Amino acid sequence: MGMRLWKKFICLCFAIGFPVFLTGCPIVAQKKEPQGKVYYTFFDTVSTIYSYAGDDEGTFEENAAAAEDLLEAYHRRLDIYHEYSGMNNLCTVNKGAGGEAVEVDRETMDFLIYARELCEETGGTLNIMFGAVLRPWHDSRERAANDPGSAAIPSRDTLEEAVAHTGLELLELDEEACTVRITDPDARLDVGAIGKGYATEQAARLLEDMGAESYVLNIGGNIRIIGHKPDGSGWMTGIKDPFDHESAYAMYLELADTSCVTSGVYERYFEVAGERYHHIIDPDTLTPARYFASVSVITKDSGLADALSTALFCMPQAEGQALIDGLEDDVQVLWIALDGSQMYTDGIHPIDRDQDTK
After folding, report:
1. Residues in CB range of 64: below 8 A, 6 or more apart
2. Which end of the chain is more exposed for a tag (fewer CB within 10 A), N or C?
3. Cα–Cα–Cα angle for 43, 21, 335, rounded to 5 degrees
4. What CA–CA distance (Å, rounded) separates 59 from 55?
5. Which residues pair with residue 296 across a beta bridge?
6. Rounded Cα–Cα distance for residues 12 and 26 (Å)
7. Other beta carbons less than 10 A from residue 148's beta carbon
8. How far apart are the first and last CA of the chain?
9. DSSP state of 34
């Protein structure tokens, strides 16, 4: 099944209510059907909001509407490709690179502060100023999708010229004035490694503040679970098999009150002369990272999980373990190597796939 057809099939699954999660984690069967809504506009992917709490219809509609509004707002704020009337977003900031500072709203500033901190914590492996390198790869992937016969990777000269415009110091944030300035006209923000997870976390926190329990958000594969099932248990959750990601799972876990995010070679890619080039670019080589087939991160904060799944994908397992050991948060990781072998942290407890799914 081709990539475009597979995406249509995924959308159909959601539309008719199949309990499937994208990228990393699926909800398994449960005794009572959940209430759910499907969205097709946030971050150019398919998203769902499910409640297993047995809410009355009015409560669920109110909660879902609040989360929808917040996700739509972050979709617009963090969009690097399109501007929107009446606001300055990250596309506006990128267009103004090399010029004057751009005023943004408080939520955008808070996001950029958080993202910059994670860039520093990962030693620059996660770099929101890496847009100058990521854009040629994005353009190559788009051209390959539109005309496979013309597929080609960016030239080495293009990439080496681009990397000169990726320093985090090129991003100036004035927290008090809520202004953002990119000092280099050739530098660009790209927040694809963290934006969706951050927005997912903000939506989950909003729902928690509204009293929601037993909710599951799946924002384009970024899973955030609010609380437990009504009986106090967790959800049986499958980590996709990166070598058979359309139908198989590499591991099953029981998860509750946490998030799960997977980065994998199968998510977005194109092929040139029979070789596959995925979308996660190693900042050291400027080419697709070749350490793992997938990395799954489980931790409470979906923004942190999103960022770490990308950063850990781009470093050896020992370096990744040292990174998470230095964090205050409880972070669990499953690394699946290119040969199919698995390494995982002590807090991960695989479940027999034949176990009763409750």
Report:
1. 37, 49, 51
2. N
3. 95
4. 6
5. 262, 334
6. 16
7. 11
8. 32
9. P
Residues in the chain: 358
> Token pair of 227, please?
């609380």
Beta-strand pair 269-272/259-264: unpaired
* Paired residues of 271 in beta bridges: 276
**Which of 249, 338, 337, 264 has its CA nearest to residue 296?**
264
Which distant-in-sequence residues (6+ apart) come within 8 Å of 306 by Cβ? 193, 194, 195, 196, 197, 198, 200, 222, 261, 297
Render each residue's pLDDT in the chain as its tens digit; 358 residues.
333 333 333 333 333 232 333 334 444 444 567 899 999 999 989 999 999 999 999 999 999 999 999 999 999 999 999 999 999 999 999 999 999 999 999 999 999 999 999 999 999 999 999 999 999 999 999 999 999 989 999 999 999 999 999 999 999 999 999 999 999 999 999 999 999 999 999 999 999 999 999 999 999 999 999 999 999 999 999 999 999 877 789 999 999 999 999 999 988 899 999 899 999 999 999 999 999 999 999 999 999 999 999 999 999 999 999 999 999 999 999 999 999 999 999 999 999 866 544 3
Burial group, residue 356, by CB count within 10 angstroms (0-12, 13-18, 19+) = exposed
Q: Which residues contact 98 (CB under 8 A, 6 or more apart)?
A: 182, 183, 184, 185, 186
Coil, strand or helix at 203 = helix
Question: What φ, ψ does residue 296 adopt, rounded to 5°?
Answer: -115, 135
**Which H or E element spans position 139?**
helix 131-146
The pTM score is: 0.89
3-class secondary-structure state, position 255: strand
Q: Which residues of 151-180 are buried (b: 16+ CB within 10 A; e: fewer)?
A: bebbeeebbeebeebbeeebbeeeeeebbb
Residue 102: closest CA among 87, 116, 81, 82? 87
Measured over the CA atoms of residue 224, residue 333, residue 310 and residue 270, the dihedral's sign is negative
Q: Say if CB 74 and CB 87 are below 8 A apart.
A: no
- Convert 305-314 to b/e letters by CB count within 10 Å (16 or more is b): bbbbbbbbbb
Return the structure tokens found at 345. Answer: 């942290």
d(CA 256, CA 232): 9
